[in-house]
Amino acid sequence: MSTDASAETSTETVTKTTAETTDEAQQATPVRKFRPRGERGPLASVGLHVTLLIAAAVAVLPPLWLLVTSFKPQSEAFSTALVKDFTVANYDHVLNDTHFLSWLANSLLVVGLTTVIGVFISATTGYAVSRFKFPGMRPLMWLLLITQMFPVAVLIVPLYNLLASLGLLNQPVGLVITYLTIAVPFCAWMMKGYFDTVPVEIDEAGRVDGLNPFGTFWRLIVPLAKPGLAVTGFYSFITGWAEVAYASAFMTGEENLTLAGGLQTFVNQYTSDWGSLTAAAVIVAVPAAVIFGFAQRHLVSGLTAGATKS
Amino acid sequence: MVVDTSRPVARAADASRVRGRRDRGGKNPGRLRRSLSTHWYAWAMVAPVVAVIGVIVGYPLVRGVYLSTTNADEANVERHIGVNHIPATYESVGLDNYTAILSDGVFWDRLGWTVVWTVSCVALSFTLGLGLATLLNRKLAGRSLYRMALILPWAVPAFVSVFTWRLLFNEKKGLLNQLLAGGGIDAVPWLNDPTWAKLSVITVNVWLGVPFMLVAMLGGLQSIPGELYEAAEMDGASPWQRFRHITLPGLRTVSSTVILISGIWTFNMFPVIFLLTRGGPGDATEILVTYAYRLSFVVSPRDFSGSAAWGVLILLLLSFFAVIYRRALRKQGEVW
């Protein structure tokens, strides 16, 4: 590159970094002769990486700090220093001296059931809405949309009474049913969008080969929709894993709590056991992150299939 | 049941496809029977969802609307004390709860803050998500690493993140204030001053919401054909013009959906506010949902009917918003 050209490059890239959000760097304007499409000057690269690094740091810092704090002794929970006296005492305390393990078991049970059932019924619903025109379809779509905006507050008291009269208070099943109503509308909506992207010809081929609609759905479409299923599964999982309001209202008694409710007992008006809280929080976050790792490959395609077509 | 099984229906457009190789109806099929035999596959597939929603949302909703027209509170609902069963003694008061709420300043204060909260959270996280997505949507060293890092706030359960932020925001000993002290700046009362608390809850919610936007926008960007950019470039469009006239229109369907959804989520965002500030200090950060929750579970005596009335009002507001929003979209040619 001639000196002339590089001088031009730097002035140009300065303007570029100021307009960071446009997708300028894909195509450079004045020095196109010297730079192929999709390449950018060194300054633009630096600007890009600096911006992304800052954003990534903001995103990663809080969870990272949580991890660091969990290895500090209780008394130093608030010190700014990185770990001075590395200790696993917090973890030891959480696992052995609290109800943490039963909270974990409760959460796993509730969330596992919610995910499995939620994915299954939202897939069938999504498929029906995507493929068949049937009376009641539009009302159903509206129902799915409106259910998502149901405020916890309007439902929580009657739901509490309902579960009490069914004897489901303090029972995992009660929470599972409740969580399904949160997770399923959004998941069905997303699955519909995903099924819309699967060509109808595949259904027709299956039909010609003698499968009934259930067979078509189960043997042809479900295997094709795995990315979409991964996303819905992930969403259901996260919904149940992180839900607070219903869990704290419906589950009482130390050993019946789910993780979200249980963690609140570490830090409240009366106590602030940040050491235990951070250790427990790390243990809680790990399974979620692992599941996330599996699902994230499909996350983008699944979500936008749902979003673009809805 | 929401599906209108009883409503006589004209033959649906693609009935033959649904019917497949099934028998084409009986000798003298009633319209109901015919539509049943045509659509039973579809109905069977949606039945579980309708059943669950009907029982768990439908019944409580009807109950909630009913409660909102009574004067039920902790002292007069049906309850058991030991072996004694005390029947409910609350009675209908018509729309008194609603008039009381609407003529009281608290509701409008909370509504104002809820709107500010929703609009700023959605706008900020959408802009940041779109910006980061545009930055990530290109050849870039360490692209997948950046993506993983940026999506991390979504992978960590929200309540864990909120506790972490409380740790960081702690006024006397939190990391943020210690860093500020290192720079010679006085401690900021992140969660204890009304204005700062509002900023803090918005910050945390934006932090939580950006990954969702980022992922959706990345997907949207990838679905825009590259040829459009090439053509625009040939015609001499500047980067900003390309962004303005190709990227933004190309993202419209995705954006309209995610904005609607995240608007609703944010409006009802219970955990962030409840766990971060409990609505405090005072009721500075209390949005409509947390206030309704406070009425039925925190204050004493618990005000069930008031809470239900708040809930119904919230629901009405949101439905209104969704209808307007959908209508606006339909005018621009989006249909479903």
From TrEMBL, chain B:
GO terms for biological process: transmembrane transport. The chain crosses the membrane at residues 40-62, 115-136, 148-168, 199-221, 254-276, 307-325. The keyword Membrane applies. Residues 18-31 have a biased composition (Basic residues). Residues 111-325 form the ABC transmembrane type-1 domain. It is found in: Cell membrane. The keyword Transmembrane helix applies. Residues 1-31 are annotated as: Disordered. Keywords: Cell membrane, Membrane, Transmembrane, Transmembrane helix, Transport. Belongs to the binding-protein-dependent transport system permease family. This is ABC transporter permease subunit. It comes from Streptomyces boluensis. The lineage of its organism: Bacteria, Bacillati, Actinomycetota, Actinomycetes, Kitasatosporales.
